[in-house]
Design brief:
By secondary structure, this protein is of the alpha/beta class. The protein is built from 17 helices and 15 strands. One of its GO terms (biological process) is maltodextrin transmembrane transport.
Length: 418
């Protein structure tokens, strides 16, 4: 049944004023988003059409969910497909011209650039903010402001072959020792590259040493201050060198080699994401998904990718954007439907906790307190130096602490010059 919503001039004026000063999806200071959307003028109701950009991996689910929204509200949804490699830059380039969409649906890691370029609006979630997982909400937060509505998260975890082991210690060293006792070719598989390593797949181990790539504020927002250059980072460097020397980590184990080796029963463990587990279950493997054990004594936090809807700061449809984002997307029912369509773990905890698939439950548990991929512009200066240093450490090239310090210095120089 269609939901009828009417407006009054004061609500329209307040919302449009807010959109003009940076909050296309928000509400006034004294109103919750729901109150702003539900204030009405006699006989009026929300109408119009929202334009949403989605890439090739999300186009079908956005069309499906958009059609449902239109059926409920009579607000039209025009979904435009954009290439995943171009959508973020096109958003930056078109919003100032007035040709941008009302909303884009993308991963969160471009948020810093959109904020810096002044193209993305804030969203006031009110009490609904507490209904999202911490990592999901942090992913759409920048400098303390929320800029989008997350709908899904994805992260890596430890996948166990239950035919080889049925229990897993909670420390890395104990896990490796137990795996070695099985006589497996590899105690654990983590994909690597001879030149670039793979900082993404190694990050849970790094955070377990208390060495996040960037410092963060109390609200979870990242700062531009590197946080991996102190003694904790150097301890992680020593760990990488030791794991390489022991043959636990090998830069010649590519993603394809790691996946096939696990399928072939050559290791009881692989650190990977949900994109590989379908192949494992289709091969008849009995697997469990677990948090990555701590190597450094602290919690191992994987990077978390957050999928979200972000509003155009200059949208002329501020009320419609608010209705779609806050009163539709930010509901457990719709988040569950987005999971059914896209297969990613919902960002809202109620929807995520209702999942019955133990594999997805495992990934959700492993990522619930994970670290959102930094969305700040400075992150682009990190990857090349970071990966090269980790590859050298695993290969035993140079003194670990010195190699790590050189990497941090190089990243700092690149950030200061960017």
């Amino acid at each position: 049944m269609r939901r009828s919503i009417t407006l009054v001039a004061t609500a329209v004026g307040a919302t449009l004023a807010l959109a003009a000063c940076g909050g296309a999806g928000g509400a006034t200071n004294d109103e919750t988003p729901d109150a702003a959307a539900e204030e009405t003028a006699e006989g009026g109701e929300l109408s119009g059409t929202l334009t949403i950009w989605a890439d090739e991996t999300r186009i079908d689910l956005v069309k499906e969910i958009g059609a449902q929204f239109t059926e409920q509200t009579d607000i039209g949804i025009d979904v435009v497909q954009k290439a995943s490699a171009d959508i973020g830059d096109d958003f930056i380039n078109t919003v100032p011209t007035g040709e941008g969409p009302d909303i884009i649906v993308v991963a969160h890691d471009g948020l810093g650039g959109w904020v810096t370029n002044g193209v993305v609006g804030t969203v006031e979630l009110g009490e609904k903010a507490d209904q999202f997982s911490e990592s999901a909400l942090n992913g759409v937060t920048y400098d303390g402001q929320v800029y989008g509505v997350p709908y899904a998260i994805e992260n890596i975890a430890l996948v166990r072959n239950n035919a080889m082991l049925t229990e897993t210690p909670d420390t890395w060293d104990a896990m490796v020792a137990a795996a070695q006792e099985t006589g497996a070719k590899y105690p654990v598989l983590i994909q690597q590259d001879p030149v670039a390593s793979d900082p993404y797949h190694l990050y849970p181990l790094q955070t377990s040493f208390g060495a996040p790539v960037f410092a963060s504020t109390e609200d979870g927002s990242y700062t531009a201050d590197l946080a991996m250059g102190d003694d904790a980072g150097k301890a992680f460097a020593e760990f990488l060198a030791a794991q390489g020397a022991a043959g636990v980590l090998d830069v010649n184990i590519s993603a394809d080699i790691a996946k096939q080796a696990f399928l072939d029963g050559e290791s009881p463990y692989i650190v990977t994401g949900p994109w590989n587990t379908t192949a494992f279950t289709e091969a008849g493997m009995d697997i469990s998904v677990l948090p990555v054990p701590s190597a450094g004594g602290q919690e191992a936090q994987p990077f978390v990718g957050v999928q979200a809807f972000f509003p155009n700061i200059d949208s002329e449809n501020a009320l419609l954007v608010n209705e779609f984002l806050v009163n539709f997307i930010a509901t457990p029912e719709v988040q569950t439907q987005l999971f059914d369509l896209g297969g990613r773990v919902p960002a809202m905890t109620e929807a995520a906790e209702s999942l019955e698939d133990p594999i997805l439950q495992g990934f959700n548990a492993a990522g619930a307190t994970g670290a959102p991929m930094p969305a700040i512009p400075q992150m682009s200066a990190v990857w090349e130096f970071w990966g090269a240093a980790e590859a050298d450490l695993i290969k035993g090239a140079g003194a670990p602490a010195d190699r790590w310090t050189t990497m941090v210095d190089s990243v700092s120089t690149a950030i200061s010059g960017s």
